Structures are given as structure tokens and as C-alpha cells.
């Protein structure tokens, strides 16, 4: 199988989400349903207009899974089924649940331009059926930037890109990306270290490590009955991982309940790799995460 690292084309995105992605629905984690996460979000490679005239075009949209009353009670479910959610992912403008509002995506039938394709698909960590989904984000770009800074101290003051170039990272496979394959491998190793910390320090019984395309996400899915993983307890987790274990996480992801994460089995279009849960730090993302259009 190919190790080619490149951006997916518009046609390949359409093929993936119409032909491959629907077959993965049964493998989605149980907390990802049509009505569980409070929002789903889609990013576009090119900005697309909304219905309001003279308003900026959108490259990123969030859509609630429920309409709510003034008291924040759920009233109307936006996606009646998983099939409705998939239609929205496949054809965001045509099946936009915000249709009828001013901020809905413009009707592709009345525009002289192609309808948008999802460049990335996300779901919200804030959830209707459970406490916030607790996630930790470890990005290969951050690992590479730290490595470059350490290896080029005193050699350049021209910024991060110059440091990456001086450290040879930009010329290392995958060439031109702000990290090397070894930085993704390190991110996965850190991810399984975090999983072990959750199991040992927090007696977690339900955890998950997800290859994110350019790093990994780690989930702690047990219910904390006393604190419900509130803001304070999440700050404690951040401090523990960053300071005691020196694992380079993004603390904002852990702390902010409005964050969105890449949907498992969606496509990371920048590198043409499938986001997916993994069981081993030796997971070969170069070959095992390739979509069918690269075979």
C-alpha cells in the first residue's frame, strides 16, 4: 500500500464520504450519535456563501443537534436519524439543518459554483446524554516545533519555520510538512502513555486512543460521578500531564467544553489519512490509515 502523503482532491473527498464513510458507521464510538453531541461541524477548503446577502462566506460551520427553548431544554431534534446526519456530511448545503434561517448555506441549485465538500468533519465534546466527553490532543506539529527549537538553539532567530528547516524537519518525510514521521510516532507513544496514566492514576476503565491524522486524541470516557469532570478537575488533569509527566498536550482541548474533535473514521484531507481508534503505538499510519482511493 502507498505511503504517499498528500492533500485529497475534491473528487476523492466526495468518493470517500459517499462510498467509504457510510460503511464505518457501526464502528463509531457509542457516544457519537445523531443527537448526542451538542453540535457537528464541517470545514470547507474554499469559502461558501450563506443565505444572508453581503455576509462573509463560510469555511467552517457548526450545527446544533437540537433546537432548544429559552431555558435550554431540548425541543426539536435536528437530525432525525444517523442517515440524516450522513446526508448533511456528504452534501452540507443541500441538507443543511439550518435551512430556513439566514445563516444557512446557500442553495447550490441557484449558484454558479460547485456545492461544498467536507474538508474535515468534527463533533462537539459537549454532550446531551453524558458529562462532557473528556479528550486530550497531542499534535505532531507541537512535538516537531519543540524538537526543532531544542536542536537549533542559537543557530537561527528567524522563527519556527526557519527552525524546522534548519533541523531538517521540512525535508524529512513527509517532505514539506511541519513535522516528520518520527514526530507522529512520538505523538502516538505519548497517547498510549496518557491512556496508561488515566488507567493507573484515575482507575479509568473506558479509554480510547485515536489516530488523528497528524497526531492522536486520547479519551477518558468513564463517568466521574463526584465532579463530572468539571472545569477544575480538567485543569488538574492538564497540570498533571504537562508538568508532572511532561507530555505536550494542548490544554485548551481538555479544558474547553465547546471544543470540537475530528470525527472518527472521517478523512484528514490534508494528508489523505483516515482518523480512527487504534490499539497499539506501533500502528503504521503510513499504510494502515490509507483510504481506498490511494490503494
Features of the shown structure:
295 residues, alpha+beta, 4-stranded antiparallel sheet, 19% strand
Write the layout of secondary structure elements.
Blueprint: H1 10-20, E1 39-48, E2 58-64, E3 66-68, E4 74-77, H2 82-90, E5 120-124, E6 134-139, H3 140-151, H4 160-166, H5 181-201, E7 207-211, E8 215-220, H6 231-244, H7 251-255, E9 260-262, E10 267-268, E11 273-274, E12 276-278, H8 285-288
Antiparallel strand pairs: 1-2, 1-5, 3-4, 5-9, 6-8, 7-8, 7-12, 10-11
Helix pairs in contact: 3-4, 3-5
Question: Would you give an account of this structure?
Answer:
This protein has about 300 residues and is α+β, with helices and mostly antiparallel strands. It folds into two domains: about 30-125, no CATH class; about 135-255, no CATH class. The chain has eight helices and twelve strands. The strands form four sheets. Strands 2-1-5-9 form a four-stranded antiparallel beta sheet, with no helix packed on it. The longest helix is centred in the middle third of the chain and has 21 residues, at about 180-200. The chain is globular, with a radius of gyration of 20 Å. The model has no long low-confidence stretch (mean pLDDT about 90).
Amino acid at each position: 500500500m502507498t505511503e504517499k502523503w498528500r492533500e485529497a482532491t475534491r473528487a476523492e473527498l466526495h468518493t470517500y464520504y459517499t462510498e467509504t464513510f457510510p460503511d464505518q458507521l457501526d464502528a463509531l464510538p457509542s457516544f457519537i450519535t445523531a443527537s448526542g453531541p451538542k453540535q457537528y461541524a464541517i470545514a470547507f477548503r474554499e469559502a461558501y456563501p450563506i443565505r444572508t446577502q453581503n455576509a462573509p462566506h463560510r469555511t467552517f460551520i457548526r450545527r446544533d443537534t437540537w433546537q432548544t427553548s429559552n431555558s435550554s431544554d431540548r425541543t426539536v431534534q435536528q437530525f432525525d436519524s444517523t442517515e440524516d446526519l450522513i446526508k448533511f456530511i456528504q452534501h452540507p448545503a443541500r441538507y443543511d439543518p439550518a435551512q430556513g434561517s439566514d445563516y444557512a448555506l446557500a442553495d447550490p441549485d441557484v449558484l454558479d459554483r460547485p456545492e461544498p465538500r467536507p474538508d474535515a468533519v468534527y463533533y462537539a465534546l459537549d454532550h446531551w446524554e453524558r458529562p462532557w466527553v473528556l479528550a486530550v490532543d497531542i499534535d505532531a506539529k507541537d512535538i516537531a516545533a519543540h524538537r526543532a527549537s531544542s536542536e537549533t538553539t542559537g543557530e537561527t532567530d528567524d522563527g519556527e519555520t526557519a527552525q524546522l528547516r534548519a533541523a531538517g524537519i521540512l525535508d524529512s518525510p513527509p517532505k514539506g510538512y511541519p513535522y516528520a514521521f518520527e514526530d507522529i510516532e512520538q505523538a502516538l507513544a505519548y497517547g498510549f502513555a496518557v491512556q496508561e496514566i488515566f488507567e493507573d492514576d484515575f482507575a479509568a476503565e473506558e479509554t480510547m486512543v485515536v489516530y488523528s491524522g497528524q497526531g492522536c486524541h486520547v479519551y477518558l470516557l468513564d463517568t466521574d460521578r463526584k465532579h463530572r469532570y468539571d472545569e477544575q478537575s480538567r485543569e488538574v488533569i492538564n497540570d498533571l500531564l504537562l508538568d508532572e509527566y511532561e507530555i505536550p498536550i494542548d490544554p485548551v482541548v481538555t479544558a474547553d467544553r465547546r471544543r470540537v474533535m475530528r470525527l472518527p473514521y472521517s478523512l484528514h484531507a490534508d494528508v489523505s489519512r483516515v482518523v480512527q481508534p487504534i490499539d497499539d503505538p506501533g500502528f503504521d499510519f503510513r499504510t494502515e490509515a490509507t483510504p481506498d482511493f490511494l490503494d
